[in-house]
Each structure stands twice: as structure tokens, then as C-alpha cells.
Design goal:
By secondary structure, the chain is of the alpha/beta class. Helices cover 44% and strands 10% of the residues. The chain has helices spanning 2-65, 73-81, 83-103, 110-126, 153-158, 175-185, 200-204, 279-288, 343-354, 368-371, 391-404, 413-425, and strands at residues 130-134, 191-194, 211-213, 220-223, 230-233, 248-252, 259-262, 291-295, 320-324, 337-339. The strands form 2 sheets. A 6-stranded parallel β-sheet has the order 3-2-1-8-9-10, with helices on both faces. The radius of gyration is 32 Å and the shape is extended. The N and C termini lie far apart (86 Å).
């Protein structure tokens, strides 16, 4: 009897089990559906709210474009009811205006330019340790475009325009490069910190120990597997196959047979190579400097390198800052003097004030020909870049180019890849 009762209870409980399970599942399913529906409703409400805000912004913007006397009573009421939108549009307009002003090139008149250069000459003569920070602006005279000028790479891309590249093997050190070389030779400049990868400081004759190429050199590839790292200077752009986070050049170190890499530091990368970056030399020079002369740089990248500015010192203990640039820079308010002029023009006047002759670049004496290491026979076809040619070869090549018509512009490499990538994003 007891057994029968127990089994009956068991059957009752087993009979009621599935139905109670189903009801609980139904509740969960219903609650899940309602939660999804609620989320969708919230997302839809947000989308509608954003659309409404956009429409309001558009309407208010159109009203603000009208002269005050032309606005209707209803439009005035809308402006009054949407004061937050009016203020936001006003802030946006101010930001646009400020950005436009910062991108404008300003030129000092001839008399003002001479006065400023005279002040710069006095500072250079009195200084004990002068350091030059150079940017893309000193190479524009060599037909290498800068980045943020009116015709710069990034500026053109932001406007949706295409950018033509240059044959960098034909670029030569500019008047500014040669003036810097002479100032170092007469011990008026102690160190040069460059953001440029074009190798023109090296080709001007500036000694390696007096130069820090913070973003690398397009003519140098290194083996970082050897200790210490071995350096190989070439007569061609070694960056043909390299890009962001991909630095192998495809050639091998003749000593350890590991792959060589370029020295370029792309946007978003941190340079770790000792040479040609020479960060140690740059930091030491900045610490000793009493005058820093910035030539042709927007300083938007350099300003982030705190070790170059001695900002941990009191203002009166920092190096005096002189800036030569046509556009606004983020260091203008800290500068002792800002000169609005082209680098070649300013440096020409400076050399005149200092009583120094401006040397002329001579390709036959270019140090790169004696520093360059030839490729092995197996590597002769490892690149398609034009090589820097001695004067005699260059003259023959120039005649051939004129006979055949204009050559196709070089694409890719440290310069071409950078703007090609930005263009794809645009």
C-alpha cells in the first residue's frame, strides 16, 4: 500500500513536471522577446532623435546665414527656442575660421624680414650651443613637397585632390642644406635634428655625429640581428617594399644572412634604431642648447618629443626658440622670434649678416658616393628604383629623358606609400 501511494505521488509529480517547465520557458521566451523589442524601440528612438537634431541644426544654420533684417518672426522664434544649437554652430564656425587662419601662409615684408634676420644673426653669434630642428619645408626647393603647406601632401588629400610623386633620386641638397653645413663647419651650429627621410643633410656633407634623423633615412638599410647593428648606405631608395610595421627590404646581411630592414619611422611607430635616428645625440644637444632654430617644420610632430624642449626647466632657463615658417606652429607663443619667410630666403640673408659664403652643392663631391656599399651580384635586381648617379651619368640620363619624353613619376616607398594609404582612406 505504501509502495502504491509512493509511486502514485511519483507519477503525479512526473506528470506535472513538463507542463511547469514549459510554462517557465514560455515566460523566459516572452521576457526575452520583450527585452529585444524594448532595445529596438530605444535604438529607433535614438535614431529619430539624432535625425531630428540634424534637421534642427540644418534649419538653424540656414536661418543664421540670412541677414538679421531678412529673418521672419517665426525664424526669430526658432533661434530663440534653440539657443544651444545657435551657440554650437557659432563654436563650429569659430573653429573653422581658426583652422583656416592656421593654414594660411604669412610673409613678412622685405624690411621686416631683414630686421628679424639681423636679430637671429645676433642670437647665433652670441650663442654657445645652437641646435637646428629641420622639417619638410627646407626640402621643397628640391621639388620634394611638404605635408601641411598649401600644396602639401596631407593638405591636398584633405581637399580630395590627387598628389603626384617626385623622382627623389634627382633631388639635391638645397641652399638651406648647404648653409647649415657651412654653419656647422665654422662651429656656429653644433647639431641638426631632422624629421626628413630624404637624406639631403647627409648628402650636403654634414657629419653623421652632428645629425639625428629622427624618422630615418631612405638610403639606409640596417641589420638589427648583428650586434652592434650594421648599416648599409645605398644609392637608391631602399623603401620600395616596405610600409607601416613591415620593414624588410628583401636583401640579406652579408655577415649573418638575416633580412635587412629600412630605417623609416612611420606615423604610429616608435623608432628604436640607434642610427641613423641618433636620439641620444638629439637629447644631449637639446640639453646643452641655448638657442634652438626651427626651419620649415610645422612642429606638430616634434612638439610631442618632450626631451627636445627642456619643458621641465623654468621658462628663463630654457633655450631661446627661433622659428622660421610661413604657417602657424604650436610653439609660436613660446618663441623668442617668429620669422615668416621661405627657408632659402631667410638662410641667404642670415649668411649675409654673418659674413659667410654660401657653398654650392657639387654632386661629384657628394659623400653618399664614398659611403654607399654596392649590392652583391645576386642582389642587383632586388630593386627597381633609380640610383643617384654621378654628374656624367646624370647628364646622359637627362638627355635620354628629353628624347623619350617625361618619365613616369615614382610611386610607393616611404613617401608614396604614406600618401597613397591616406588617399585610399579618403
Amino acid at each position: 500500500m505504501n509502495v502504491f501511494i509512493k509511486s502514485s505521488k511519483s507519477r503525479d509529480s512526473s506528470a506535472s513536471g513538463p507542463s511547469s517547465g514549459r510554462s517557465s520557458m514560455d515566460v523566459n521566451t516572452n521576457s526575452g522577446c520583450s527585452a529585444r523589442a524594448e532595445r529596438k524601440q530605444q535604438e529607433k528612438a535614438k535614431i529619430l532623435q539624432r535625425e531630428k537634431q540634424r534637421q534642427t541644426m540644418k534649419t538653424i544654420s540656414k536661418i543664421l546665414q540670412k541677414a538679421e533684417g531678412e529673418r521672419t518672426q517665426e525664424e526669430r522664434g526658432l533661434l530663440q527656442a534653440h539657443q544651444d544649437t545657435v551657440q554650437e554652430l557659432s563654436r563650429r564656425q569659430s573653429r573653422r575660421f581658426l583652422l583656416k587662419r592656421k593654414q594660411e601662409e604669412v610673409f613678412d615684408d622685405a624690411e621686416n624680414l631683414k630686421t628679424k634676420v639681423k636679430q637671429l644673426a645676433e642670437a647665433v653669434q652670441q650663442a654657445k650651443h645652437v641646435v637646428i630642428y629641420s622639417g619638410a619645408g627646407i626640402s621643397t626647393a628640391a621639388s620634394i613637397p611638404d605635408y601641411r603647406g598649401p600644396n602639401g601632401v596631407w593638405t591636398q588629400l584633405q581637399k580630395g585632390r590627387s598628389v603626384s610623386s617626385s623622382d627623389l633620386s634627382r633631388a639635391e641638397p638645397t641652399l638651406t642644406h648647404m648653409c647649415i653645413w657651412m654653419l656647422h663647419k665654422v662651429k656656429m651650429v653644433q647639431h641638426v635634428v631632422s624629421q626628413n627621410c630624404d637624406g639631403l643633410h647627409l648628402r650636403s656633407g654634414l657629419p653623421r655625429h652632428a645629425l639625428s634623423e629622427l624618422h630615418g633615412n631612405m638610403f639606409i638599410e640596417v641589420c638589427d640581428s648583428c650586434s652592434p647593428a650594421r648599416e648599409f648606405i645605398r644609392l637608391f631608395d631602399v623603401t620600395e617594399r616596405t610600409a607601416l610595421h613591415r620593414h624588410g627590404t628583401g636583401r640579406l646581411c652579408p655577415y649573418c644572412r638575416e633580412e635587412l630592414r629600412d630605417t623609416i619611422v612611420h606615423f604610429g611607430e616608435r623608432g628604436t634604431l640607434e642610427q641613423p635616428l641618433n636620439w641620444k645625440g638629439a637629447a644631449e644637444a637639446a640639453q646643452q642648447a641655448d638657442v634652438i632654430l626651427c626651419l620649415g617644420s610645422s612642429l606638430k610632430v616634434l612638439k610631442k618629443y618632450s626631451c627636445l624642449w627642456c619643458m621641465n626647466r623654468p621658462a628663463n632657463k630654457r633655450p631661446r626658440l627661433y622659428i622660421v615658417n610661413l604657417q602657424w606652429t604650436p610653439k609660436d607663443n613660446l618663441a623668442t622670434l617668429k620669422i615668416h619667410g621661405k627657408c632659402d630666403a631667410v638662410m641667404g640673408l642670415l649668411m649675409e649678416e654673418l659674413g659667410l659664403e654660401i657653398p654650392v652643392y657639387n654632386r661629384s663631391q657628394d659623400p653618399i658616393f664614398s659611403l654607399a656599399k654596392p649590392l652583391s651580384p645576386q642582389e642587383q635586381k632586388s630593386h627597381t628604383r633609380k640610383e643617384i648617379a654621378p654628374p656624367s651619368v646624370l647628364e646622359d640620363a637627362s638627355q635620354d629623358a628629353q628624347a623619350q619624353g617625361e618619365a613616369t613619376a615614382v610611386q610607393g616607398g616611404w613617401f608614396g606609400r604614406g600618401y597613397a594609404k591616406a588617399r585610399r582612406k579618403k
